[in-house]
C-alpha cells in the first residue's frame, strides 16, 4: 500500500470535515432545550410571549453560529485544495 503525502493530506482533510460537521450536534441540542424552556415559560405566563420569543430567537441565533462555523470549516477542508 503506497500512500504519498497528498493522499494523507486529503484523508486527514476528510476526517477533519467529518469532525467539523459533528459540531452541529451541540447547537441543535441547545436550541431544542431553549425552545422547550421558552414554551414552558409561555405556558406559565402567556402575557410575556413577545419578550420570551424574542429572547429565545436571539439566543438561538447566537448558538447557531457555532454550527455554521463547523460547516464552513468542513466545506473549506473538502473543497479547497490544500497545498495546491
TrEMBL record:
Gene that specifies this protein: atpE
Pfam families reported for this sequence: ATP-synt_C (PF00137)
Domain called V-ATPase proteolipid subunit C-like: residue spans: 15-77
Xref: InterPro entries: ATP_synth_csu_bac/chlpt, ATP_synth_F0_csu, ATP_synth_F0_csu_DDCD_BS, ATPase_proteolipid_c-like_dom, F/V-ATP_Csub_sf
Biological function: F(1)F(0) ATP synthase produces ATP from ADP in the presence of a proton or sodium gradient. F-type ATPases consist of two structural domains, F(1) containing the extramembraneous catalytic core and F(0) containing the membrane proton channel, linked together by a central stalk and a peripheral stalk. During catalysis, ATP synthesis in the catalytic domain of F(1) is coupled via a rotary mechanism of the central stalk subunits to proton translocation. Key component of the F(0) channel; it plays a direct role in translocation across the membrane. A homomeric c-ring of between 10-14 subunits forms the central stalk rotor element with the F(1) delta and epsilon subunits.
Protein origin, superkingdom: Bacteria
Main location: membrane
Residues at the site labelled Reversibly protonated during proton transport: 64
GO MF: lipid binding; proton-transporting ATP synthase activity, rotational mechanism
Membrane topology: Multi-pass membrane protein
Species: Acetitomaculum ruminis DSM 5522
Protein name per UniProt: ATP synthase subunit c
PANTHER family, A to Z: ATP SYNTHASE LIPID-BINDING PROTEIN, MITOCHONDRIAL (PTHR10031), ATPASE PROTEIN 9 (PTHR10031:SF0)
Amino acid at each position: 500500500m503506497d500512500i504519498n503525502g497528498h493522499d494523507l493530506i486529503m484523508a486527514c482533510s476528510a476526517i477533519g470535515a467529518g469532525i467539523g460537521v459533528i459540531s452541529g450536534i451541540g447547537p441543535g441540542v441547545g436550541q431544542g432545550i431553549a425552545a422547550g424552556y421558552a414554551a414552558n415559560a409561555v405556558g406559565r405566563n402567556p402575557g410575556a410571549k413577545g419578550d420570551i420569543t424574542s429572547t429565545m430567537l436571539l439566543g438561538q441565533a447566537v448558538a447557531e453560529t457555532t454550527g455554521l462555523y463547523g460547516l464552513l470549516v468542513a466545506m473549506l477542508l473538502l473543497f479547497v485544495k490544500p497545498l495546491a
